[in-house]
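Predict the 3D structure for this chain.
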Amino acid sequence: MEIAMRSLILAATTALTLTACASQAPAPQAAATPAKPAPQCYSGDHGKFFDVGAKAAISGVDVVCEKTSDGKAAQWMGAKAKH
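Done. Predicted structure below.
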């Protein structure tokens, strides 16, 4: 009787161990980081963003959207006058 009980406990332990190992899902892969958006300039007069290099007239002044010196943002700069 004692041997049968030990065998039953051993069989149950083995079955639980195998079931636990078999049901583990593989580790999820890290999601790729999204691409960083290019800098843009916002115009309240137009109500939208403009890409770097775009020209616009804001409050009657001709401006160009240019990258900042660190390249992380963009800002409106006065357009060069044509002579």
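The helical segments are 2-22.
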